[in-house]
Amino acid sequence: MPITSVNRDPASLTMTVVADFAADLQRLWQVYVDPRQLERFWGPPDYPSTFTRHDAAPGGRSTYRMTGPDGQTHGGYWEWISVDPLTSFEVRDGFASPDGEPNPQMPSMRMHFLFEERGTGSRVTTTTYFATLEELEQLVEMGMEEGLRAAMGQMDTVLADLTAFAAGDGTVCQILSETQARITRVIHGPIETVWQAHHDAALMRRWLLGPDGWTMPVCDVATTVGEKYRYEWEPAAGTAGERFGFEGELLESVRPYRAVTTEQMIGMPGDGTLNELTLTPVPEGTLLAVVVTFPDAATRDAILATGMVDGMETSYARLERDVIG
């Protein structure tokens, strides 16, 4: 059990949890900023969590749901207040309604996570600040302390599993729900470079090509919220295929870590998708995550069956080779 102490202090309205691990500091930090790893322990074993958004940056937001053995879900959110890489971060943690918005009927709390090297391992100290004594007592009665103990008890396994989340595993697709999938890849380059590569037409034409043998004659980039974009590809001489493209609108943009767009295949009827791009600095470079929301499960399965993920991997490998170098 990694937790070494739990201290509730009614006078200061805090609860402090100290946990020690054999893993090094970088590894411990990464399990909190990588949603694929965080959701493996953020919740008791019988209430696993799924993060549908995770912006590890000041002003960012995370949304997640915990699913119980009976299939019932309970939502939560983090509002990111501050981040000092490899040292600390602070969030406001609260309960969320089914639509992911904060539940005003339930209390929220400020949580500060402090990371420290400890001999051959590392330590995380989690201090939770409550607004009132009543809220502290309410959340303790709801099982907050037991939940934290059970959740963090799973961390040793996550930290030891270096292979599953090692850089270089390529592009991975995870099904999050009937209508959502998360596509992730570690890009070996700094976050600003990766962001620029997604927003500069000249750079995009060098890497965003999918399989070899295609060109990108149209690359109209949206850089301001509300602007429309349009991308078109066509096969080079000697390559089989027909010209196609996508268009949509930029809904959110926070440089260098978040961009949200709609996407519709040109000339195709029906609803398109919502694409949420998140970039997070990690020791190996930049963790790229795209959460795609589809209109329904059938559309999700049909799009993924086109080989989309393989095409994305070819493009991301080209991004590392031809843009980042």
UniProtKB/TrEMBL annotation:
Signal peptide: none annotated. InterPro entries: ASHA1/2-like_C (IPR013538), START-like_dom_sf (IPR023393). It comes from the Bacteria. Pfam families: AHSA1. Residues 23-159, 190-320 form the Activator of Hsp90 ATPase homologue 1/2-like C-terminal domain. SUPFAM superfamilies: Bet v1-like. Belongs to the AHA1 family. This is Activator of Hsp90 ATPase homologue 1/2-like C-terminal domain-containing protein. It comes from Nocardioides aquaticus.
